[in-house]
Write a structure and sequence with these properties.
By secondary structure, the protein is an alpha/beta fold. The protein has helices spanning 17-30, 39-46, 51-56, 83-96, 133-142, 160-168, 181-189, 191-194, 216-222, 247-257, 272-279, 305-310, 329-342, 357-368, 380-390, 451-458, 466-482, 488-499, 502-514, 526-530, and strands at residues 7-12, 34-38, 66-69, 100-104, 118-124, 147-152, 174-179, 198-201, 233-239, 262-268, 285-288, 302-303, 315-318, 324-327, 349-353, 372-377, 393-396, 407-410, 439-442, 462-464. It binds NADP nicotinamide-adenine-dinucleotide phosphate (NAP).
Amino acid sequence: MIAGMVQIVVSIAAADPATVLAGAAQAKAEGADLVELRLDRCARLAKDHGALDGILATIPRLALPAVVTARHPSENGDWDGSEPERQALLAVADEAGAAWIDHELAQWDPRRRPKRARLILSHHDFAGMGGDLPAVVARMRAERADMAKVAVTPRDAADLAVIEALHHQRAGGALTAIAMGEHGLPSRLLAGAWGGAFTFGRLRGEAGSAPGQPTVSDLIERYRIRAQGPRTRIFGVIGSPVAHSLSPLIHNAAFAHHGLDAVYVPFLVDDAVAFWRACGGWIDGLSITIPHKHALLDQVDRLEPLAARIGAMNTIYRGEDSAAIGANTDASAAVACVEAQAGTLRGSRVTILGAGGVSRAIAFAMAERGARVLIANRGHERAQELAAEVGAEACTLDAAPARPFDVLINGTSVGMEQKDKAAALESPWPRAAHRPDTVVFDTVYTPLETALIKEAQMAGATTVCGLSMFIGQALGQFSRWTGREAPEGLLTRLALERLGGRDAARSASASGETRRPPGRKGTVNLEDTLGGGV
Ligand code: NAP
């Protein structure tokens, strides 16, 4: 299969011919290759099967070639007419110049083979993985389908292995194999790499025709689906939830920047071990986010020493021998952010609020730098346990403000934007306990400018926004995957655009520029990485 063979299909359905024509024109404008005309949905929208005559008459005038179907209710279709009527409509579509007719394998009668259009035989399962898919595809081939299409519903991302493997058995004809829903999204985004014939996208602002469809522009621009081919290296982020992750946006931009044949997708994963065992073989590298940072420690071939000491990893990359190596780039990124403002940490008094995953990584890295670490956590036992491992002191959150500090780090989730907007206004640190000659680093970056950051700035402290750490950990991942440096300024700009707060980020970091203690150099600072260009 050569690169660029996958075609993007947009499903359209409307009650009248003008809207169908407009939908096809829009699909073409957004970059699709074909439209799928869903006669069953058109009939439902029009509440009148008579409207289908006019809709069928649009086929020769559509802006793109059409795949025509009238999906049977047994496969989640909306068709409510008789079977002879459905077959008659498909015959008219064939006569009118449809490029493809899509018919369910389960309802197939070889006497109805289209005369002009190519034939898709399809199999849909909205509740499971569709049974023995290789056998289903073999039956489609035996019926001389020009394309075999399966659309199934994974329970977890591990089921993507079934779809990936099916592509290896596509000899004998074109195959479109889709896993629906958010767990299945990577199957749509990797169709070019896997050699799929079609992938389905939705128009901007539309809901799409099946769960989990990406937009056409995301397929083309972010996931560069037309440039994908069998040699494309596959990366991604595993987490739950994962849809909010900025990582696909920035890592794909970095791959494109360097002209690398690689793609990065979001994997919604419930069981990380099952996912890695099923899919790890075709994955070149991973970012790992909540709640899986501990799950794969004993699944990789080796761990970098810092990740082993911390007992958590946010990255998997391949060594020269293809071995899977686990790393923790959160820790080094956090240290770099703080050192950029505070200078050397040896002997500095560092108070870390929190004893969860992020605090743990930071505590180990700070202790390695020779800082005197105090861990303050809501759950005191957890603080004591971490402190004992790191060689730090522990106290309760309430007791921490009375202790002197040079650097204050928030590793709790307090202040993070949640559905309850008021939560974002909270700070884990009393306003009155801020000091001017200190560095305050909030790992939370949604919102960019947290209450902690604002209050620290008002007290004259130097502040570091959590986005710097996020970008820093991504840079560490990218260099391990590719041996190259990711374009930091571009990544920061994209992240800021997505978070919608350039001004907030500028002011969050600007205070670090203007109030940095004299003689201390800054390197990982939003203002520096942006070069003042945004
Ligand atoms: P985690 O393992 O679940 O730990 C959460 C921590 O927050 C625990 O110490 C917990 O205390 C504390 N906490 C939660 N709610 C609290 C409350 N209402 N009052 C006081 N303490 C509370 O999570 P994590 O992975 O460490 O992530 C923590 C935060 O770090 C995230 O919210 C995220 O914003 C940020 N983060 C930033 C980056 C970055 O690159 N900038 C990367 C990862 C994470 P208990 O032990 O008492 O429950």
